[in-house]
Amino acid sequence: MLRALNDVRQQGYIYIWANLAFVALSLPLLTMPAAYAALCRVAHQTQTEPRSPEPLELFWETFKSLLWTALPWGMAMAGAAFMIVSNMFAYADVQGVPIQALRMTWLLGVMFWTAILLFTWPIYYEMAEPTVWGAARNAAVLVLRNPLFTLIVVAAALILAVVSTLAMIPWLLLSCGAVAAIGSAAVIDRLDAYRAERGTDAVHSCCRGTGRRQRGDPLAGAEPQGQHQPGDAPTRDRASRRTPL
Predict the structure, then answer these.
(1) Which of 23, 47, 68, 93 would suit a FRET pair with 125, their CA atoms being 20 to 30 Å apart?
(2) Which residues fall within 8 angstroms of residue 224, CB to CB, at 6 or more apart?
(3) More confident: 7 or 218
């Protein structure tokens, strides 16, 4: 959390421009998932590659490359959100122990949904052979293995969302980028902790995804240096800073 806020403070102009681009490209709702994926890409690369390329160029290239890839994920997230919220409102006036238990389940569903929203794309950019559903699965594993950590991260993001909603203007300028920064910092923190504690194998056991490679060759499948492609995770991260998922 502090790492994310510090990054936003130090490189605020990057987050502001990326936030404005996200808001503009989210006006057609069908493009919102790709816009959010691009915003997370900028946040992730800003934290892992401080001397990254022009952020708006990175945002645009990622948006174009993930436009159709991100859409099914966005529709699934929207459907889950609609189901949770509609159930909460439908039984708002109903009393009883079973209903109270259901309300607790729906509140946990809100927390879980928010965590998947925060963690999916940062994990996607950490995978050597990324797939959206593999990243979403890895995000769920991260949540289940780190419940207290997830609770703190989600609470921070929700508090930021409430404050921004009350003021409104922050949503246009910075809040979306700050939320993406929180998610990226959280994923980086957990993956670094696993690697420090258990080495490369921890990444495979904690966050196995469809993009994994054989255990004996942790860098297989990573592209050579200098052949960075739009929408892929930063090359230097894979080859020198992180072990790919």
Answers:
(1) 23
(2) none
(3) 7
